[in-house]
Amino acid sequence: MPRLSFGSWVEDAVDWLQSNLTFIFDFIKTVLGGMYDGVNAVLGGGEPLLMAGIFAVIAFWLRGVIPAVLTFAGFALIDSLALWGEAMATLSLVVVAAVITIVIAVPTGIWAARNNRVGAALRPVLDVMQTMPAFVYLIPGVMFFGVGVTPGVIATIVFAMPPGVRMTELGIRQVDSELVEAAEAFGTTPGHTLTRVQLPLALPTIMAGINQVIMLALSMVVIGGMAGAGGLGEKVYAAITQLQVGLAAESGIAVVILAMYLDRMTGALNERVSPLGRRAAAKAAAGARRLKFAHYKPGTAVAMTGVIVLALVAGGLNIAGSADSKATASDSTDVGKGQKINMGYIPWDEGIASTYLWKEILEQRGYETGITQLDAGPLYSGVARGDIDFQTDSWLPTTHKDYWDKYSDQLDDMGAWYGPTSLELTVPSYVKGIDSLEDLKGQGKKFDGKIIGIESSAGMMGTLNKKVLKEYGLDGEYKVVSSSTSSMLAELNASIKKKEPVVVTLWSPHWAYGKHDLKKLKDPKGAWGKGEEVHTVAHKGFAKKAPAVAAWLKDFKLTEKQLTSLENEIQNAGQGKEQDGVRAWLKKNPGLVDKLAPVPGGGSKQGKDAGKTVNLGYFPWDEAIASTYLWQNMLEDRGYSTTVKQLDPGPLYTGLAQGQLDVQFDSWLPTTHKDYWDRYKDNLSDLGSWYGPTSLELSVPSYVKGIDSLEDLKGQGKKFDGKIIGIESSAGMMGTLNKKVLKEYGLEGEYKVVSSSTSSMLAELNRSIKKKEPVVVTLWSPHWAYGKHDLKKLEDPKGAWGEGEQIHTVAKKDFAKDFPELTGWLKDFELSEAQLASLEVEIQKGGAGKEKESARRWMDANPDVVEKLTPVTG
Known about the structure:
It comes from Streptomyces argenteolus. Keywords: Cell membrane, Membrane, Transmembrane, Transmembrane helix, Transport. The chain is of the alpha/beta class. 55% of the residues lie in helices and 13% in strands. It is built from 36 helices and 20 strands. Helix 26 (622-637) links the parallel strand 11 and strand 12.
């Protein structure tokens, strides 16, 4: 038979879908992610014991007193195991997946029951869905939706769908046909026959199907932990890959408690919603002679009241807790300002150590972090898609070569932080006569013909099988057992305890060499190749998203001594306490955080007047927005507190003169703001100009040929539709344009100056450029439009616009007395045209409402400028 390339066809189909239907996958991801976040906010947001009380009230309503007590005890146990958040995340995934599955499965089952052709067509589809290995569903989920919640939910829906459809179809088909015929004989419509006869009688079977849907959803959600779905699944997966028996037992108990609760509650729900179930429950309660209180179940209204009361209390405590947890003081090391950074790692020791090290560092610098453990394939896929920002355990150029080659166009190599490494086969020192790979030949029986390996996907396993064994003539005599890193270490540990011979795959650095007395087998033929480097790899665009973090990662380095000591500290802390191990290690290495993550602009240094509040004001001109938010960030880095208010020029100057505001950075003098300066100068302080000279001008796009000077506009009015697009009519430059410039160049009558607003002028400029239409607009320098568009400033040979102005910093009268240190900084404050233009462009990119964050990004990219503007001595 010829080779059927079914797998390659599937891969081609997947590639096509990824290339052409990304918008659909993104939409689905957004919807499912939003549903999960909403449910998780409700279930995981309250005080654990109060939420356990709510679950207990539901159990009391559905099953009685004893199940309610057991429910509370079970959920309290989950909380005591410190797994409440993970359990609620898992429950949220189950709820979302089960609800979607039921909404699809029940109508589909009804359709199949009422249409034999549909039922026949669905059966083989359901067979495939039900018998396909559950892990297979994760592969397309990760490829289409990346790592995280969505692939777990999608895989769960597909896996849990069949019983819901089958049981619904079975329940309706089992309804006595004579009852259906009787209903039809009395003139009942098909719809009423379904809702009033078939569904009520089939409800017990349908509810059994729903029960199975929920149970399968729970089992699949745990498997979804391999794709980064989080919750208990991630804990179970971590326990498996790291061979942590204690964690596996704790996580397993939590899963069992959830499974028992969901199973018992969905089973009992049938008694509440089904007429047959209610009749059976009433009969059982009437027949109970002893312990009648144990069979008591409150009415729906009573149970609902209890749930609402507990929910309100839980919500109130959560709100109060959130309010209490908000930081009120400005932290000079708060670089991240709460920005979320997602990290992923393979459960290799250096990956765990470096990831949790950066988790601690980033949190100390004000970032919010997320961590996901994944296998190498999903990890690289997640980083490439941008679901994960970076990972610190890329072994290049060999071990992870296949992944790098596949995703390199979507990744950024941030550089190596450790190396060179070495790959090796290792034996305990008590195994005599085995010191080199050459010594293994003919000794297969001693090691039971096995070499204990790690994950089959690891590059070193491919090198071992394809090169090392052949080079030393060991293929056929030895079989490489693929397992996991934790399983390999467990086998090594067990063999050493029994003093049995064993040969394992290992690498340097590794903490096992510190724990056990081992021999690295020499490789005289160099079959393992040269040592590798451990790299940090991020998604494309990460440096733009978090420039400070990207800069830190590019300079990240650890010595072998530092890395092995960090790994050992984490090993000593134990599973689940990796960050505690990192903190203990950092205490033994003071100053390392500042070295690995220096605060941009020297923000860790406090100013002499730190703690004082500076009230900043500005009016919405681009250079004012840029300079104000730049100084807000720098002042907070130096320990000052700040407030920022936007005002029109009149109220702004009045506020400064009255001392309600301290300083503003956009006084155009001596012309534009002359009236305000003349009126309030006795109550103001001029701290000097920080930019100039400015210029006012008319500008046209560069594609408008033959128009290079104001003189060239004469006689060309038709080309521009007789219009010059202006800004606010109150602006000083509009008066100069109308009263002087047009007259000086004989343009009045031929051109009409259209008063609008700065934003409207820029919108008209942008629209015209897109259509390649001629347009002439009022502009000034500096302005970010010159960086965004290719424009020509029209020359003014007659000097009609007048001389350029200076942009001054103006403060209240007693500013120097109140802020002596800041006064010195502001008097020396200067920005070049290139600096100001790049700052304005960064703020434009960030968008409205993100001015402070955008200025921070510019500061991260220009730390030398910030240090120069706010020097701290002593």
